[in-house]
Amino acid sequence: MQLQFNTVSEPSKAGQRWKSLFDKFWPNYRIWFLSQNTSSTPDLKTSQEALKKYMPKMWLTYEHLCNITNADKDPELARFLTGFQPPAYISACAQAVIDTDEIQLVRNYDYHPDLLEGIVLLSKWNTHKVMGTSDCLIGLVDGMNDAGLCVSLTFGGRKEIGVGFGIPFILRYVLEFCKTTAEAVKTLKSIPSHMSYNVTVVDKKGTIKTVMLAPDKEPFVTTTPFATNHQGTVDWPENAQFNQTVKRYNFIKNYLKSKNVSSSELAKAFLHPPLYNTKFKEGFGTLYTSVYQPEKMRMQILWPDVAIERSFDDFKEERILIQYNLGFQAAPSIYTPAQTSATPIQTAEYVAENSYRWQDAVVDSLVKSMVGNESKAKQKELRNKLMPNGEVVWEEIANFWNQPTTY
């Protein structure tokens, strides 16, 4: 399987580059957007009034987007651009913030490959420059602004659909106008989300919050620096079984407790099982790993064998072709995609250096997640199976991780 990613730089209000993206993606988005129309689907006036009420600072941008897309002649497009009450969409994903040697937000985007935009966009539509991974043309699934505020989302693992905005549109609004975690949390609590999502936020000072949003509950704010795909308890057992949300949650929790885990080692862990997923055909493959470093004002997009880096001052436009292994992928290999200068991840730099420390932490965290407080003999037995002779057997980790769990 091969997917194309593009980095697009337009550090101004939406112009010709964004319009080109719109022309490319809108026909398919239109089909998706109209696919779930019912008698309860809001009309254009209702959608515009909701935008004015909940995201008033975005109104001028909305008018501009409507103008350059001729949305005045297309009520469905004009309604789409409000971000209000889109069809349901379910991803998986995992995310975590670490603050050791530096502040860093890392997330895996686990989603169906056919639904990926593959656009990493630098823009400045309002107060702040924003760079991040685009979704629904005007939304973001993760990103950072030039104040050093970083946000990322995971699906909250609940079936309920209510009245509200699509979460990518909400994240865009947060990054357009907020500077700090406190401002972001206040904004997130004020805008209704039409489905359940977990949004992890960190700013340049290292203040971390995870906000659990739901259409039928009040927002719940925690200091937990990570999230997977449930909100405290499992509300949708079938979904939790499929994406192993509780196992991944416990793994990240234990991993962050490991001694001397650096920010770079956290990123490495996200590129390997159990956090890196290869169920691409089932819509649960890791399409990319994003890394945001607010102190350095830098982002990275990682794959098992390729890495790109961008900053607000150095945002090169580029086309990257990524080849995915549909089966198990044990460790990074050196791969240079065609027509790109993206940097292959060198084994010596990204795997071997300090490999014992981070691989040891991965295995220890997995053992704690899977066998908990069972006997030390049981823990030792599992550890020896996963890491005999000091070397991780990634196939065993993947197989062990995918064993069924009852909720």
What does this protein look like?
The protein is an alpha+beta fold and 407 residues long. It has 3 domains: 10-80, no CATH class; 94-345, Penicillin V Acylase, Chain A, CATH 3.60.60; 355-401, no CATH class. The chain has 13 helices and 17 strands. The strands form 2 sheets. The protein has a 9-stranded mixed beta sheet. Strands 2, 3, 11, 12, 13, 14, 15 and 17 form an 8-stranded antiparallel beta sheet that branches. α5 (167-177) packs across α6, α8 packs across α11 (355-371) and α9 crosses α11. It is globular, with a radius of gyration of 21 Å.
pLDDT averaged residue by residue = 86
The CATH topology of the largest domain, please? Penicillin V Acylase, Chain A
- Order of strands in the sheet with most strands: 10-9-8-7-6-5-4-1-16
Tell me about the biggest sheet?
9 strands, mixed
The amount of helix comes to 25-40%
CATH architecture group name of the largest domain: 4-Layer Sandwich
Helix and strand pattern: EHHHHEEEEEEHHEEEEHHHEEEEEEHHHH
For the record, the CATH class of the largest domain is Alpha Beta
Q: CATH H-level name of the largest domain... which superfamily? A: Penicillin V Acylase, Chain A
Distance between termini?
33 Å
Total helical segments: 13
The Cα radius of gyration reads 21 Å
Counting helices, strands and paired strands, the structural category is alpha+beta
Beta content: 15-25%
What sort of overall outline do the alpha carbons produce when their principal axes are compared?
globular
Number of domains: 3
